[in-house]
Design brief:
heterodimer, A: 362 residues, mainly alpha, 10 helices, rod-shaped, B: Porin, 1 helix
């Protein structure tokens, strides 16, 4: 190995040793600086704990609050003691191991100061998980329960009843946790209950919309029933009267089912009532049209009878007499409400009259 | 005390059952709900604990667990509801675990029709431990009553006024547990437009009494106005409200004025696809700013698409939340939270299931002293199944995990409420 190479290796070794020493020194100062920062943070928290404890210190009537304040004071004193122990290691001569011990002590001191603040606040019942936020959440869920009870038709539908009851129990449990000062758990449970109730509410509202629709249908059916009742008075049909009476009964059942939240049954009764009303209305409308046909037939017979008799065709005159007989039958049948038989007689009379007119050359 | 409480419970049940006895004409008036259930609420968090002995006192990391509830229970409730329109009802309920019981009584009475109604409501709840060590604040009696008047003031204008009182009495008071009573009043005015949209105004006042420490008494006022109804082709609800709390001490630093804004908008993109936006903001303004009570703004924004397909619906979307503290400290707790929301709903006649999950990250912006950044996951399952006849299974499960940069801040919360009940 020549001298140049040897010198180069020695240079390299020196550089490496120098570099690692410099790095070690910068690491050490970085750790020390970090430690100093931690000490400062702890100082600030201890100061804040002192402020919190001294506030209202003598204002408590309660023995328990005074005890809580004393506990918090003790914790702060311990925190100060630990912090002082930690500060011993804030020294240029402290090794990295010493600084780590110091850091642990200052963190512990900070933890105690935080606990002191927490105890003070919890004792006053004001903060920790923001007590007023939780109270507001509990009351919000209560208001939701009240609204659901108000908006649910009569009561919550049966299929949702069990879930609704369980949600109410959970809300009572959330209040219980709040009163036992388990604030976070109370908040969580009340929020969950609110979520359950909102979901149930969506379905109750959907049910309400369905109910409103059904109520509207029933109201419309009631109007239709009144209208049909008037119509059948004019058409004077016993069968129609009987149908309307049955429709009336179905509507009463429909109202009863609706009040009992038996919507499906109510809907069935409504359908039956509507079917019966339609039949009665059709019956009466048939009656009216058949009556009109009878009147028209009577007029036609009056108009054409002179012409047929004057034609002198005995077959035609026989057909005219037969038409007259069918007309009399039709009138009798229509009066007794036998619309179909009446219509058949009218048809037979019309055919006889047409044939008679053909025989007379018309 | 216990005998008195037990007597109250017996009276509640006798009252309800007697109500049922006198209503034999209507067999549906009396409903009995009986079943079993399991409730579990547990919180786990890591915390630094300290050994003080000797000069080598060191911080140790330990997992603390607190089970607030771990109750296997039997439950029975009897309700008497003779009027199909729900004008009056009575209910008595009993829950029994291996160590404690809860008894409740509820009465409701109303006069008038849907539009003009006077309502009265009274609730009594009692919780007692009969085995094991009594935990401070665990045994209590709660009385809560409300009188409410609903009135149709004009064709499209209705109002509501209510007065409520609540009294919470603990068997043992303690450091954090004190008896208190609250007296509340509430007024609501509601205008319904021709399209069934609603514009409302609310106002409420509350007074809390703490007999043990008058320092904790407070007066509270709140009010708000809002709109619920349609807008363009969608639906919306928007509300602005305030709350003012005034503790019974001159210039108490915990007095505050809170302003809240909420708005949501839902409109359809297609037959099956809806878009929802949700916005919420709170601003706390404390009477005196200090380390513990600093004014802040908290804002939450969500944007979701909801896909509805028959009995199913899926929702998906991002949410953001940020906290801005009006603080003089450079290390305040300002944060920004970003999360993804996914939800699934199934609703059919005999079963419903709501699942959702929020997964996200909270970043503290100013390197705060007390908190560290974390990733979180929040799962929620709500289900109800009608097994047959009137046998129902109801489950509510919620779990929340926080994984912090600083392990000592990690926390977990589990919440389960389940019941299997039969009604007849």
């Amino acid at each position: 190995m020549n001298r140049h190479i040897k010198s180069f290796i020695i240079f390299l070794v020196v550089m490496v040793l120098f570099g690692s020493t410099a790095t070690a020194q910068s690491d050490h100062s970085r750790i020390r600086n970090g430690f100093a920062e931690e000490l400062q943070k702890t100082d600030r928290v201890i100061e804040q704990a002192r402020i919190a404890i001294n506030r209202n210190n003598n204002a408590y009537d309660s023995y328990y609050l005074r005890i809580a304040n004393q506990q918090a004071e003790k914790l702060v004193l311990n925190a100060i003691a630990l912090q002082n122990q930690a500060k011993i290691f804030d020294n240029v001569t402290s090794s990295v191991a010493d600084i780590i011990v110091g850091e642990k002590k200052t963190l512990a001191a900070r933890g105690l100061a935080i606990k002191a603040i927490t105890i003070k606040k919890r004792a006053e019942g004001k903060v920790e998980e923001n007590e007023h936020t939780i109270l507001r959440q509990l009351e919000k869920t209560d208001r939701l329960i009240e609204r659901l009870r108000e908006n649910a038709p009569a009561n919550v539908p049966d299929r949702l009843k069990s879930a609704f009851d369980t949600a109410l129990e959970n809300q009572r449990r959330a209040w219980e946790l709040f009163r036992e000062r388990a604030l976070r758990a109370s908040l969580k449970l009340s929020r969950q209950t609110e979520k359950t109730l909102e979901k149930l509410g969506e379905h109750i509202r959907a049910g309400n919309t369905e109910n409103r629709r059904l109520e509207n249908q029933i109201a419309r059916a009631e109007q239709k029933l009144e209208q049909t009742r008037l119509e059948i008075k004019e058409c004077n049909s016993d069968e129609a009267r009987e149908l309307i009476s049955r429709a009336d009964q179905e509507m009463s059942s429909c109202h009863r089912y609706l009040s009992e939240n038996e919507n499906e049954m109510a809907r069935n009764s409504l359908k039956n009532a509507q079917r019966l009303m339609q039949r009665a209305a059709r019956l009466c409308s048939d009656n009216q049209s058949v009556n009109r046909a009878v009147a028209r037939l009577e007029a036609d017979i009056k108009i054409y009878s002179g012409q047929i008799i004057a034609g002198g065709d005995p077959n035609a005159i026989g057909l005219l007499e037969s038409a007259g007989q069918h007309l009399r039958d039709a009138k009798r049948l229509c009066e007794s409400g036998e619309n179909e038989a009446c219509a058949a007689s009218v048809k037979a009379a019309q055919m006889n009259l047409r044939k008679a007119l053909r025989l007379t050359g018309n | 005390m216990r005998i008195n409480k037990l007597s109250s419970v017996v009276i509640i049940f006798v009252f309800v059952l007697a109500g049922g006895k006198f209503s034999v004409a209507n067999s549906t008036a009396l409903t009995v709900r009986a079943g079993i259930g399991y409730d579990f609420v547990s919180q786990q968090y890591f915390i630094d604990s300290v050994r003080f002995s000797g000069s080598d006192s060191l911080t140790e990391l330990s997992l603390l667990e607190k089970d607030y509830l771990d109750d296997k229970k039997a439950l029975l409730s009897v309700s008497f509801n003779p009027d199909s329109k729900g004008h009056y009802s009575l209910e008595g309920s009993w829950e029994q675990t291996s160590e404690l019981f809860r008894a409740g009584g509820r009465g409701f009475l109303s006069f008038g029709d849907f539009y003009n109604q006077l309502q009265a409501e009274l609730n009594v709840d009692i919780k007692e431990r009969y085995r094991g060590d009594i935990i401070e604040g665990e045994e209590m009696t709660i009385l809560d009553g409300t009188i409410r008047l609903k009135k149709q003031l004009a064709d499209n204008f209705n109002g509501k006024i209510s007065l409520s009182g609540e009294s919470v009495i603990y068997d043992t008071v303690g450091t954090y547990i004190y008896n208190y009573s609250r007296l509340r009043s509430y007024i609501e005015l509601n205008y319904i437009t021709e399209n069934y949209n609603s514009i409302y105004l609310t106002f409420g006042a509350e007074k809390r009494y703490v007999p043990d420490t008058s320092h904790l008494d407070y007066n509270l006022f709140r009010g708000g106005m809002g709109y619920t109804g349609s807008v363009m082709d969608g639906s919306t609800s928007a509300e602005v409200s305030f709350e003012s709390k005034d503790y019974n001490q001159i210039d108490d630093p915990d007095d505050y004025f809170l302003t809240m804004l909420h708005a949501d908008l839902r409109f359809s993109i297609s037959d099956r696809l809806d878009l929802i936006t949700d916005f919420e903001m709170e601003h706390y303004n404390f009477s005196e700013e200090n380390y513990i009570n600093e004014d802040y703004y908290q804002t939450h924004l969500g944007l979701y698409t909801v896909w509805e397909m028959g009995d199913f619906s899926f929702s998906l979307g991002p949410e953001i939340e940020f906290l801005t503290i009006d603080s003089k400290s450079e290390n305040d707790d300002d944060y920004f939270e970003l999360l993804g929301f996914a939800g699934f709903d199934y609703f059919q006649g005999f079963v419903f299931l709501f699942l959702d999950n929020q997964f996200g990250h909270r970043r503290y912006l100013n390197n705060p002293i007390l908190y560290s950044d974390f990733v979180f996951d929040r799962v929620s399952i709500i289900g109800s199944l009608s097994i047959f006849w009137n046998l129902n299974l109801d489950v509510l499960l919620s779990a929340e995990w926080e994984w912090h940069q600083n392990e000592s801040d990690d926390s977990r919360l589990y919440l389960l409420s389940s019941s299997l009940t039969y009604s007849f």
